[in-house]
Write a structure and sequence with these properties.
The structure is a homodimer of 112-residue chains.
Chain A (H helix, E strand, L loop, with lengths): L3 H4 L12 H14 L2 H9 L5 E2 H8 L3 H13 L3 E6 L2 E6 L2 H16 L2
Antiparallel strand pairs in A: 1-3, 2-3
Helix pairs in contact in A: 4-5
Chain A binds a DNA duplex (30 and 30 nucleotides) through α5.
Chain lengths: 112, 112
DNA sequence: CAAATATATGAACGTATGTTCATATATTAT
DNA sequence: ATAATATATGAACATACGTTCATATATTTG
């Protein structure tokens, strides 16, 4: 009886149990937000759709680098695109992007 | 006059301009969420604080791996900890963690 | 104090990531 | 068809990341 406290090592509470795959998908989603270049691209699209070269100019990077990242963003459904002649315009996919962005911003700006 | 359309290459709209440093901080924050192990740790803390070994057991990983990740999570202010004797309990730092997590979840579950 | 337990940490290792460079594709203009 | 423009993509490279292993620190127990 005297070491009953010692025995109960871990009081197991069942925690929020999401499927493995969901967690991987979720991690992949946040991974997309986890790079300042991609965040800057998203910022550039906040007001209106933009073409690749415009974004590249604005960020001072090559169109190749931007194109690679846009593909990544599109694969993860954070942006959509439409072709207009030679140029392709990219736009934010939906409001979640903005909301996730804003929640993150709130978090970092809250800390001292 | 005939190629005036050709000339206006990029109609520059000023986009949301955040300081470089803010973007890096924001990317760092999302980077933390961009790993399934860390997400699982956060899940494990959703209901209540937990000690390192408990989390390690639950995730089927070594305490070393978990400890490394918890340090990372703490550096980014997503968790706090308190010591109780030999064991150290970790807990979610604030509600932003949950909200960012939930927004992400909404996003991936919305898509078909 | 020594042993046991819980956690932390540095080094090392393989893998993933972001950019660049060269090249390919697509559209338009001549 | 050829040239010019806009974008996409594969390979290569350097860097960053996550885990493991060994070891260190901290607390409690005997």
């Amino acid at each position: 009886m005297k070491h009953s406290l010692k025995i109960q090592k871990h009081i197991c509470k069942p925690s929020l149990k999401l499927p493995e795959e969901t967690l991987y998908d979720l991690a992949d989603l946040f991974k997309v937000f986890g790079d300042s270049t991609r965040l800057r691209i998203l910022c550039a699209l906040f007001d209106s759709e933009q073409c690749v070269q415009h974004i590249a100019d604005e960020l001072g990077m090559t169109h190749s680098a931007i194109s690679h990242q846009l593909r990544f963003l599109k694969q993860n459904k954070l942006v959509t695109n439409r072709r207009n002649g030679k140029t392709i315009f990219y736009a934010l996919a939906d409001e979640h992007v903005r909301r996730i962005f804003d929640q993150g911003l709130e978090h970092i700006q809250e800390e001292v």
